[in-house]
Amino acid sequence: MLKFPGERLNNGGHIRNVLDVGCGVASFGAYLLPLNIIAMSLAPNDVHENQIQFALERGIPATLGVLGTRRLPYPSRSFELAHCSRCRIDWLQRDGILLLELDRLLRPGGYFVYSSPEAYAHDAENRRIWNSMYDLLRRMCWRVVVRKDQTVIWAKPLSNSCYAKRGPESRPPLCGPDDDPDVAWNVPMKACITPYSAKMHREKGSGLQPWPQRLTTTPPRLGEIGVSVEEFQKDAQIWHHIVAEYWKQMKSVIQRNSIRNVMDMNSNLGGFAAALKDQDVWVMNVAPVNASARLKIIYDRGLIGTVHDWCESFSTYPRTYDLLHAWSVFSQIEERGCSSEDLLIEMDRMLRPEGFVIIRDKPSVVTHVLKFLAALKWDKWSSEVEPSTDALSKSEERVLIAKKRLWKENSV
Ligand SMILES: C[S@@+](CC[C@H](N)C(=O)[O-])C[C@H]1O[C@@H](n2cnc3c(N)ncnc32)[C@H](O)[C@@H]1O
């Protein structure tokens, strides 16, 4: 329908990050993955609650999430395409606040693919909803790109020009200059349009390279977080080396194709995930709340991620990840007075039997964690080393890698 050159769905790498709201068992995301498009598939914790579990068991990125009252935990301008297939969301509620949240998350020129009875049914009620949605989205400066069969595809504007042409009393209003569109942890949604930064407006877009170049070229928003190009390049180099060392350490115990769903619990600039690009895995990059500004770099690089406070439990089902990487996460939560034992239990909940944890932290943290390995049954195999120091080492560090056993493996 979008008529990209050669009918390539990823439009030559320009469509990479997708948000699928109301994803079911994430079949849309599963279809896109081999096309080098990565979808953050969302389903709420409702009567369909085990959908996300199915998706993750299929090895497809997915998380619990709902378009409700709070912003989704992603920075602005993260996705090239949003998708709702029969997601049964009332998009007109509360002055269109849920569409305005999608508007915040979509990149300049981003698409909204909507496949729902309102887009094609001819009864009076569906016609009324369609007309109201069409009117609202027109006021938001979105345009219909194509409407065919059961689906309509809208596109957002590329710059602020259309907003500037709206009258001062136009609804929905533009968000005020004091609104930071990138803060997304426990932030109430607002019924306003997020205008583009001056740079995006000038450049009429995000300034992104297509995938896979965007993984390694300088992310357009790097300057916003105060990181230099040299620091970014150094970070990428160091993580390539660290990840190779991790794999060497696990080589004797890792089975082929046994690692698929990976979480980097403190993703920083995404160096850990970038170093895994050629492995058949996907990485959920997690930016702790105090480093959440860095999450936009993850999305600029064509990776996916979320914000999280590791003093709380994570929005996923039990035993859904094969590998958890925790770099300085324990020392950070301890500084905030949260319990490292609680975090160990949460990691154990998320970790699949036979899965691995990699904990890179201060020696005192690693010594503390070692005491719990047997109780957690993370003692199928473990290895502890002192890593070589590099520009990322904050202080003396140790690396502990442990493998979780099946609880009843001796009795079967
Ligand atoms: C009929 S299923 C469609 C599943 C899938 N998209 C498909 O086409 O097979 C609708 C899904 O939307 C989800 N949903 C409903 N309201 C939602 C909201 N406000 N935010 C996120 N998901 C929502 C429901 O939980 C359900 O999983």
Automatic annotation (TrEMBL):
Source organism per UniProt: Handroanthus impetiginosus
Protein's cellular compartments: Golgi apparatus membrane; Membrane
GO cellular component: endosome; Golgi membrane; trans-Golgi network
A Pfam family recorded for this sequence: Methyltransf_29
UniProt keyword annotation of Transferase present: yes
Enzyme class: transferase
Single GO term (MF): methyltransferase activity
Keywords (A to Z) from UniProt: Glycoprotein, Membrane, Methyltransferase, Signal-anchor, Transferase, Transmembrane, Transmembrane helix
Gene3D superfamilies, per database record: Vaccinia Virus protein VP39
Superkingdom, taxonomy of origin: Eukaryota
Descriptive protein name: Methyltransferase
Record membrane topology: Single-pass type II membrane protein
